[in-house]
Target: Enoyl reductase (ER) domain-containing protein
Amino acid sequence: MQKAWFYEENGPKEVLKLGDIPIPTPQGNQVLVQVFAAALNPIDCKMRQHPIVPADFPVVPGCDMAGVVVAKGVGVTKLALGDEVYGNIQNFNEGTIKRLGTLAEFIVVEENLVALKPKNLSFDEAASLSVAVQTAIEGFKTAGFQQRQKVFVVGGAGGVGTLVVQLAKHLFGASEVVATTSTSKVEFVKSLGADKVVDYTKTKYIDIEQKFDLVYDTIGDSKNSFVVAKDDAPIIDITWPPSNPRALSSGLRVSGEILDKLGPYLESGKLKAVIDPTGPFHFYDVVAAFGYLETGRAKGKVVISPFPSQHLSSVWSRT
Model:
């Protein structure tokens, strides 16, 4: 048996329970991963609060993780026992969710959804990346963003926003990146590569004269932020449904291949994981971590670490 957080009904964070559940056995192309760190995402809160997609109870929440492969199915060809991996284990494109999410000591996941962890990243840093970076990339692709264009990022200090700012500069070749944040986070967002930072507590969208080739809204405020877009320029809103009917909502393509391609950017330091300094939260403090995430004040990602099983050996006899 293993320790896991789960819920047996939809509702607020208080429906979460800590208990014992069986350790799964990997089938076919799956690997069994001993989880060393996990990250929380707004989608975890939404799926707990409302049944967005069908799921049988109990449900262990969580999408993002980093850990060590301790067993594998007979169809696994690329990963070996002892490999350090990270990824988003929930493939939302299938229209369902795994009942065993990442807030458990051991999880199973298809090998094509994970990638080898860059050696220069800690487990905490790797766990923070997958959903946020895949979401950020899909937004640029949906918008058809081109090199030398200018982007306005709404929410530059959030879990997705911190990566949108960095990707705009270092992967998609934006000529100018302007981002919004609160007063205390202005210098932090500049350090990520933003050319200009707008303090939303002092400046309204309507007061910004410059117009942009893309408005990338990571906080669901496209009903207001659209005014800084050029005529007919795309507006990306990562929340669902978007608050502006003109806004585009990008999908989430879950793939270990995407993470593999980002490897050189992570290893060179051009792309950095950003973990909220309040954490990481211990595995036994998951309810508090969700409470903090739901305040909307996190700077970067909320990470869960360490996990109870980390004192165990990662050498397993199952193959």
User: Anything to note?
Assistant: Residues 168 and 237 are 16 Å apart (CA to CA). The radius of gyration is 19 Å. The first helix runs from residue 42 to 49. Residues 314-319 have pLDDT under 50 and may be disordered.
